[in-house]
Specification:
CATH class of the largest domain: Alpha Beta
Largest sheet: 5 strands, mixed, barrel
Radius of gyration: 41 Å
Distance between the termini: 118 Å
Strand order of the largest sheet: 5-6-7-9-8
Strand content: 15-25%
Helix content: 40-55%
CATH topology of the largest domain: GMP Synthetase, Chain A, domain 3
Number of strands: 15
Structural class: alpha/beta
CATH superfamily of the largest domain: K homology (KH) domain
């Protein structure tokens, strides 16, 4: 069997095993032929090479330009010599002179082998990079085989990945040889292959776990609108159903918690609050403070997205959460600034406000305490505003007649002057 046939068989085997395009391998071999010939005769020549894809036969030729007067015989040829070779003798034409490749084919084969091995490695790295890049956002399983400076190196089978300390959950501890699940958050190309970065602290991990455990999410019947997380502590997931017959929270929890429990177990007991998404901000905010039960939500400012929430006294600590993490996550989830107050706090604030208002009205000359109390209760506590009222405005209040109304307005004007 000739070397040429062996070369063709090797080419076909590489294409089959390594999934490298035939055209790329041919280009490598042809370049190797050119390089080998230049080593054979010198670098200052213009050489072309081709490999027959059917027979594996290698052909090479020196390319020279037809000139009137030859000054560089390596690159130029006279018109007379060109015509002897049966080619165009027109000035500027390119003449191809066939070469006997037997003299340098062995060198070419060795060079090609080295280049092909290198190209195979590059191709494998590139294809692995593309494969891993497509997996960004997906969960992968691996085995820990090294821990260096708190960074965990994970064997994913085809490649390695790093779980940096910044992407770990503070209370989780891992050992070499332990299986681990994480989400790929970034893939970078480097000389050793794809640099794959994993995370167990990302909200993407929670989203992917729900996709795995809840068919309705995978099938897009239920959608995760938003998810926020304080890794190791609590996660809040807002969900909406695109089918009125499917309860989004119930679908995610499962019968007796069968669907959410494996996710909580995977996250080592991290609390998960499932919140029904609502276009009504008051409803959405109330749900976001789960597990606390909300009495009322007052939208303070639509423009500034500020809301005030009231809860019972015994629900206040639950609504705020340890170190404020529950209300903080609720704010992140909804995009609203949430001020949580208990009934007791609200009552105390109202009493303080009433006392301040009463104190201001006590400055009005000749007005009784009972009348002041009536004005405060009705919301007429601003002295300047009292000056702008008329008798009819005040006589609608219980216990205030026309004379008293006139007296109040005159006293307010006197105080404000």
């Amino acid at each position: 069997m000739s070397e040429k046939s062996e070369l063709l068989m090797a080419l076909e085997q590489i294409e089959k095993d390594k999934k490298i395009k035939k055209e790329d391998i041919l280009a490598v071999i042809e370049n190797a032929l050119v390089s080998a010939y230049k080593k054979h005769v010198g670098r200052n020549v213009n050489v072309e090479a081709k490999v027959n894809t059917d027979t594996g036969e290698m052909a090479a030729s020196v390319v020279k330009t037809v000139v009137k007067e030859v000054t560089n015989p390596l690159l130029e040829i006279s018109a007379q010599e060109a015509k002897k070779l049966g080619q165009s003798g027109e000035a500027g034409a390119e003449v191809r002179i066939p070469l006997d490749t037997q003299d340098f084919s062995r060198i070419a084969a060795q060079t090609a082998k080295q280049v092909i091995v290198q190209k195979i490695r590059e191709s494998e790295r590139d294809s692995l990079f593309e494969e891993m890049k497509e997996k960004v956002g997906q969960i992968v399983n691996g085995v820990i085989y090294r821990i260096a400076n708190k960074n965990i190196i994970v064997d994913l089978g085809k490649t390695e990945a790093i779980l940096p300390a910044s992407e770990q959950i503070f209370k989780e501890k891992f050992n070499v040889g332990q299986h681990i699940r994480a989400v790929i958050i970034k893939v970078e190309k480097n000389s050793k292959g794809p640099g794959t970065v994993l995370s167990r602290a990302s909200t993407e991990l929670v989203k992917r776990l729900f996709e795995l455990e809840v068919p309705e999410i995978y099938e897009k019947v239920v959608e995760i609108v938003n998810a926020v997380r304080e890794p190791g502590m609590r996660t809040k997931v807002a969900v909406i159903s695109h089918n009125p017959k499917v309860d989004p929270v119930g679908a995610c929890v499962g019968v007796k918690g069968a669907r959410v429990k494996p996710i909580i177990d995977e996250l080592r007991g991290e609390r998960i609050d499932l919140v029904p998404y609502s276009a009504d901000p008051a409803k959405y905010i109330a749900g976001s403070l789960s597990p606390a039960k909300v009495l009322s939500v007052v939208i303070v400012s639509e423009e500034e997205k500020k809301a005030e929430v009231m809860v019972t006294d015994d629900m206040l600590s639950l609504a705020i959460g340890k170190n404020g993490h529950n209300v903080r996550l609720a704010a992140k989830l909804t995009g609203w600034h949430i001020d949580v107050k208990s009934e007791g706090q609200k009552k105390h604030e109202s009493e303080e406000k009433a006392e301040k208002q009463a104190a201001a009205l006590e400055q009005l000359e000749g007005i009784s305490e009972k009348t002041i109390e009536t004005l405060v209760t009705a919301g007429f506590s601003d002295i300047e505003k009292l000056t702008q009222l008329n008798v009819e405005d005040l006589t609608t209040l219980p216990g205030i007649g026309p004379k008293t109304a006139e007296k109040i307005i005159e006293a307010a004007k006197k105080k404000n002057s």
